[in-house]
Amino acid sequence: MSLLKEIITNSPEETEAVGFELAKMLENDLSLPSFVALYGDLGVGKTAFVRGFTKVFSPNALVRSPTFALVNEYPTKCGRRVFHFDMYRITDEDDLYSIGYYDYLDDGSVCLVEWSENIPYAIPDEHIRVEITKTNLDKTDERNIKITF
């Protein structure tokens, strides 16, 4: 995988801005993968990243983690659909089939998947990997965001 960007953020708003920047890249370069696999511990800022990302395709969307719904769709103005998955509660391949996960991948939509570490067997070969980690326990909002593809 090639490093696209690595950055330290110091607030949820800065984390959102990195998500926004990545979405602008996808909007302008259709050769980039439309699957974004998000990795990171609970509360690290994955949903904040998605919130920023989604502002490009669906500026008025109310972005919440789909922990219980498993997937949220955000209406877009450009015709390119955006799906936001939360795989925290997914335990096996049957769970993925029951929510129609593979159907979402087949239609060319943008898919943002939180807790991708829970489904390593179901991540497409061509994807963008976003790893978000806390870097300093004394600075509670500081994050390292590493984006590769």
Descriptive notes:
This protein is of the alpha/beta class and 149 residues long. The chain has one domain: 3-Layer(aba) Sandwich (Rossmann fold), CATH 3.40.50.300. 27% of the residues lie in helices and 26% in strands. It is built from four helices and seven strands. The protein has a seven-stranded mixed sheet, covered by helices on one side.
Query: What does the overall shape look like?
Result: globular
Order of strands in the sheet with most strands: 1-7-6-2-5-4-3
Number of E-type strands: 7
- Low-confidence sequence ranges: none
Q: Any idea how many domains?
A: 1
Beta-sheet strand percentage? 25-35%
- N-to-C terminal Cα separation, in Å? 5 Å
The major pleated sheet works out as: 7 strands, mixed
| Helix-residue proportion | 25-40%
CATH architecture classification:
3-Layer(aba) Sandwich
CATH-assigned fold name: Rossmann fold
Structural class by SSE content: alpha/beta
Q: Radius of gyration over alpha carbons?
A: 14 Å
**Count of alpha/pi helices:** 4
